[in-house]
Design goal:
Layout (H helix, E strand, L loop, with lengths): L2 E12 L2 E12 L3 E5 L6 H8 L7 E6 L2 E2 L7 H4 L3 E4 L1 H6 L6 H6 L15 H13 L15 H13 L5 E5 L7 H15 L6 E6 L11 E6 L2 E7 H4 L2 H8 L3 E6 L2 E6 L4
Parallel strand pairs: 3-8, 3-9, 6-7, 7-8
Antiparallel strand pairs: 1-2, 1-4, 4-5, 9-10, 11-12
Helix pairs in contact: 5-6
The chain binds adenosine-5'-triphosphate (ATP) and magnesium ion.
Length: 265
């Protein structure tokens, strides 16, 4: 299987501090990764490298076979091959556009604009992705009026629009209520188990948000990798406690995960 992402000794240094610290990590085609780590651990920074929007200060990052910062790599050709859904993206999108327009513009590599003639086939695709995310009733709603959960689902539909080879999700379930979270986990689980769906990397703070079908976990703390490998091997109480810096017990319940702190003695 070919590498979708290959990081070798990647550091991102800002103001003398390594936000990502000598990370070596490879994601193979078809794998679905979860990134876990506390606030400020460097998860979003790492995802920004994986999306080609941030170049490493040190080390090499190869995304879909293209190495960042080398003469042969054109990031403008690379970026449409990567789907990204995160809070930063939501802020760039015009609030007055409809949900359907918001998803459609992704096909043309832009965040705004409705003057273009859109192909009927693109509109069909946009409708199909929105349907898959349970957003068919919101096609004509203005993006800016959506609730947190609705916005998150629209952004995932948008990220799928370019038919990406790599899908990056930054805390897709953050801010959702329990029903919204469970609905999203179910939909992500369906996507994760779909053999023709793109390789996926999802950042989360909560093991409860890991959908069945996710295969691997990367744990980071203070920019450093603590554990990386198959979920069933690496998602242990020991690793999670180390990662979040407190004693935790992680349990598998059916095909889902839960974690809780040990009672104070
Ligand atoms: N441009 C920057 N200059 C300096 N520090 C930065 C910069 N961008 C991010 N940081 C810092 O880098 C650290 C890692 O940030 P990052 O956003 O990657 O964390 P995260 O793991 O995504 O956290 P969260 O769970 O809160 O989203 C944080 O301490 C943040 O304040
Ligand atoms: Mg973050």
């Amino acid at each position: 299987m070919s590498d979708v992402l290959e990081l070798q000794d990647v550091s991102v240094v800002r103001e003398g501090r390594a936000l990502v610290d000598q990370v070596s990590w490879s994601v193979k085609e078809g794998e679905r990764w979860v990134i876990l780590g506390p606030n400020g651990a460097g998860k979003t920074t790492l995802l920004n490298v994986a999306s080609s929007y941030l170049y490493p200060s040190k080390g090499t990052a190869t995304i879909l076979g293209e190495t960042l910062g080398t003469p042969g790599t054109d990031v403008f050709e690379l970026r449409p091959r990567i789907g990204m859904a995160g809070i930063a993206m939501a802020d760039k999108l015009p609030k007055s556009q409809t949900v359907l327009q918001t998803v459609l513009t992704a096909a043309y590599g832009m965040t705004a604009g409705w003057q273009e003639e859109y192909e009927a086939v693109d509109e069909q695709r946009a409708r199909a992705f929105l349907d898959r995310l349970g957003m068919s009733d919101y096609l004509e709603r203005r993006f800016g009026t959506l609730s947190e959960g609705e916005r998150k689902r629209a952004l995932i539909a948008r990220a799928l629009m370019t038919d990406p080879e790599l899908l990056l999700l930054d805390e897709p379930a953050a801010g959702l209520d329990l029903g919204g979270r469970e609905d999203l986990v179910r939909r992500l689980g369906r996507l994760a188990r779909d053999p023709i769906a793109p390789s996926m990397i999802m950042v989360t703070h909560h093991v409860e948000e890991i959908a069945p079908g996710f295969t691997h976990v990367l744990m980071i703390r203070q920019g450093k990798v603590l554990a990386a490998g198959p979920v069933e091997l690496e998602l242990t109480s020991r690793n999670l406690s180390h990662c979040f810096g407190l004693p935790l017990v992680v349990e598998q319940v059916g095909d889902r995960w839960t974690a809780q702190g040990l009672p104070m003695s």
